[in-house]
Specification:
The protein is of the alpha/beta class. It contains 10 helices and 6 strands; from the N terminus they run βαβαβαβαβαβααααα. The protein starts with 8 loop residues before the first strand and ends in a 6-residue tail after the last helix.
């Protein structure tokens, strides 16, 4: 569904650089129909804000610690399937594209582009269109993204979530992973090896029938374990 110019578009900014998000918020401030309703520094924070703020559009960085942009985008779409995702990245290559296509993004803008390009991208995605800041001969990638997004809009998924099956240590690591902590950070905080954390992470994914850390975030929100 497209939006008219008079309708307010609720926007969530997600990036591990707060100053960059402040810059984007300032860029959008003059436009009454574009309202930044939240800014998240981690994937876990982004999913929690998406669950509470119900944004129409998310401007998403890719290279974040802990949950990366792909995992974050997937998790946000699980709790708020209608959210339109515009990737705003410093990565000049397109190595993320297969996974981004899979989650159903609607736009991709490189941070090296002028601010006006980001503004045009937000307007385009807000209206339900695909926006790419790089060359797309024949519009084939845009067509693929459009088809994938439609499929994402029409489907959803729920994993198992029997928290009683978790040990006390697994529950502790589950909460930290869902809150956006990296394996290395968890290992340091709990004074255990990263390999041990990876083992617990694997067991968590198996017991909760989760396919990714993003799925763990969704389960944590559903059970009220992630603070909003």
């Amino acid at each position: 569904m497209t939006q008219t110019q008079s309708e307010i578009c609720r926007i969530l900014l997600v990036d591990d650089h707060k100053l960059l998000m402040e810059g984007v918020r300032s860029l959008l401030a003059p436009y009454a129909h574009l309202r930044v309703v939240g800014m998240a520094l981690t994937g876990g924070e982004a999913v929690a804000l998406a669950a509470s703020m119900s944004p129409h559009l998310m401007v998403l960085d890719l290279g974040m610690p802990g949950m990366n942009g792909v995992e974050t985008g997937r998790a946000v779409l699980e709790v708020r399937p209608g959210t339109r995702i515009l990737v705003y990245t410093g990565h000049e290559d397109q190595r993320w594209l297969p996974e981004l296509i899979d989650i159903g993004i609607m736009g991709h803008v490189r941070k090296s582009e002028p601010p006006g390009v980001l503004l045009r991208a937000i307007e385009s995605v807000r209206q339900g269109n695909i926006f790419l800041s790089f060359s797309d001969p024949g519009g084939r990638l845009a067509a693929l993204l459009r088809a994938r997004r439609q499929a994402v809009d029409e489907t959803g998924g729920e994993g198992g979530s029997d928290l009683n099956a978790l040990s006390p240590r697994e529950k502790e690591i589950f909460r930290l992973l869902a809150d956006g902590w990296s394996v290395k950070a968890i290992a340091g905080d709990l004074h255990i090896s990263p390999k041990t954390v990876e083992t617990h992470k694997y067991n968590l994914l198996t017991k909760l029938q989760a396919g990714s850390v993003g799925d763990l975030v969704k389960i944590a929100i559903r059970h009220g374990l992630l603070k909003v």
